[in-house]
Each structure stands twice: as C-alpha cells, then as structure tokens.
Recover the amino acids of this structure.
C-alpha cells in the first residue's frame, strides 16, 4: 500500500453498497441503510446493523441512496464514511475511490457525488460509466468491436446497455426493478386475499417463490378490517405471475434497445446474447422470458449482485483502463 492509501472501488447501490479493495477483492457488501433514533434523530447504526433492526419501534431506518446517487446527502456521507473506515483502517492515509456514474446523472448530481465522497474522507474520486463497469464486471469483452449487452436489474430501476469498443452504443432504462416486482406482488395479495404486505413480506414471497419446491410460500400480512396480522399461504405460481408485468416492461425495453443499435451490432448481439446482473436477475423465470422476447441467448453473470463492484474494481486495479476507455 502506498503512503497515500489504498485504491478502492465502491458500487453505491440503492439497496446495497459493495466495496472492492485493490488486490483483495470485494470486502464489504451491506445494505445502504442508516438507523436513527426516532426521538432524538441520532444515528445509531449503519449497513447490516441498520437494516436488521427494522422491528424496533423506537428507531427508524433510512435509505439515503437512490439510483447510484445520494438522495439524502448528509446520511449518505455518514454511511459512506462509516463503510470506508471499516475497510480502510489507516489513520494517516485516505483512499482513492472509483465509483460508478449513472448514465442519466446531471452535472450537478455528478458534482454532489464527488463532494460527498470527498467529505466522506476520500483522497481522490474517479467516476466511471455505470454501464461499462457492469459490462466489465460481467466479464464481457468491453473493448472489442463486437457488441455486448448487459442488463442490470436493481432495486428501483433496470439499466440496459449495449457496449462496443469501450463505449456505450445504446442504452435504455426502465423505472422499476426488484421493488416494482414486490409492489406488484403486494397489489395482487391485497386484491386476492384482502391482506396488506409490507415490502419485507413481499420480498420474502418473491424469493420464496423462486426456491424449491416452488409450490407455496407462507407470509404474514396485515388485515385492514380487523387490524390483525395473519398468515397466508400463497401459490408460488401466482406470485410469479403477479411480477409478470414488471418483467414484461423490462423485456420491452430490452427489445427497443436492441432495435436502436446499428444493424451490424444487432447481428453480433443475436450470437453473443445478453448478460443479466443485479439482484433482480435472480428472479425465477426472468431469463426465460427475456430469451423469448429477444430471440437471443440470455445468461446470468457468475456473480450477478457483485458485477458492478467487480467492474469498478478492475478499474481500481488498472487505473489506466479508465482513460483508455474514456478516450474512445
Ligand atoms: N433471490 C432473489 N430473487 C429475486 N430478487 C432478488 C433476489 N435477491 C435480491 N433480489 C432483488 O434484488 C434487488 C436489489 O438488487 P441490487 O442489489 O442489484 O440493487 P442495488 O445495486 O442496491 O440497487 P440499484 O443498482 O438499483 O441502485 C432487490 O429489489 C431484491 O428484491
Ligand atoms: Mg446496482
């Protein structure tokens, strides 16, 4: 390690933050959450600790990141500083950090991201396009002239990109990712069973429906008539169908992105196929639906939830890569 501190890469996700340390790999993967005392507003925990204490009525959890950018500057800064101190315990040096820049970030948002990272104790910030980080982390040949497609299904959004020769050639965004599926499941349960599910319960139903024996998932919902909470057994098939609309909008946007590509790249893609990353890519049946819509091979990356951090980590390992890819 240099006296100036290690180089790190950080994927600041809406649901989770992942940190990659040069020559070590991913060393932190925690919810992007801050826990505060409801009465005093004092911060009492970050990350896993903050997300786990959700049942405590004396405290509330806030999620200060949205779409890769700080939504609550002060809380995001304190959370990042906490994470950085956890992985970079060197009192006399500060790390240099590679972070993802969302494609739709305005110059002001970009500046806010930089300022926040500096204030959180970074020595230098390098911003790298999110889509390229995703493609690198998914193991795609980003610098080749062939086209590669990567679809990142995150918490609140799905980002679709075709990259070739180190640049983004076509891109699309769908509002809604994993949370959109949860909301659709909660709506279906309310209509069919008269029970209200909170996001945690809808998430449990979604994950349960993707696990063997794929038949039934039991969750606890709130009955608005009696005010009581009661258990309900939901058919896994119904849960999967409820999330179908969100899957359809992802499929539509993926098709539109391919259609907006130059013809020769679209031809490459039909052979190369698309790679899915992000937590939402773990949704059962998604790959099959996308394969049918796109008429091309679709596979999930080896480490889907870590792909963006791994791609940014590649840049931290080889800082020259950033300028090589940017120059194109
Ligand atoms: N096993 C699973 N099955 C279905 N969905 C899952 C599973 N595991 C995680 N998810 C979903 O993944 C989503 C979070 O994905 P991810 O961790 O990639 O988001 P993020 O990187 O924090 O957010 P973003 O990239 O949108 O800022 C959640 O909505 C969650 O429901
Ligand atoms: Mg993400």
């Amino acid at each position: 390690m240099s006296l100036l501190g290690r180089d790190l890469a950080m994927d600041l996700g809406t649901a989770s933050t992942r940190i990659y340390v040069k020559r070590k790999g991913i060393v932190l993967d925690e919810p992007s959450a801050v826990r505060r005392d409801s009465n005093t507003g004092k911060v009492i925990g970050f990350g896993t600790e903050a997300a786990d204490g959700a049942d405590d009525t004396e405290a509330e959890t806030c999620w200060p990141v949205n779409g890769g950018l700080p939504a609550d500057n002060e809380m995001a800064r304190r959370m990042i500083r906490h994470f950085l101190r956890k992985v970079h315990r060197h009192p006399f040096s500060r790390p240099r950090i590679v972070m993802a820049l969302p494609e739709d970030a305005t110059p002001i948002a970009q500046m806010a991201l930089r300022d926040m990272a500096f204030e959180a104790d970074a020595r230098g910030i390098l911003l790298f396009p999110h889509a390229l980080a995703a493609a690198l982390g998914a193991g795609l040949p980003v610098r080749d002239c062939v086209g590669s497609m990567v679809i990142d299904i995150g918490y609140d959004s799905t980002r679709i990109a075709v990259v070739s020769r180190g640049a983004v050639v076509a891109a699309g965004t769908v509002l809604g990712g994993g949370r959109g599926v949860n909301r659709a499941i909660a709506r279906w349960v309310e209509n069919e069973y008269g029970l209200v599910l909170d996001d945690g319960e809808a998430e449990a139903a979604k994950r349960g429906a993707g696990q063997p024996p794929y038949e039934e998932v039991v969750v606890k919902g709130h009955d608005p008539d009696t005010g009581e909470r009661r258990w309900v057994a939901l058919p896994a098939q119904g849960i999967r169908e409820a999330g179908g609309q969100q899957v359809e909008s992802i499929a539509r946007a993926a098709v539109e992105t391919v259609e907006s590509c130059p013809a020769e790249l679209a031809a490459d893609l039909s052979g190369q196929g698309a790679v899915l990353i992000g937590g939402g890519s773990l949704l059962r049946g998604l790959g099959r639906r996308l394969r049918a819509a796109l008429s091309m091979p679709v596979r999930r990356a080896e480490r889907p939830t870590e792909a963006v951090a791994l791609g940014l980590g590649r840049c931290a390992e080889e800082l020259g890569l950033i300028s090589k890819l940017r120059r194109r």
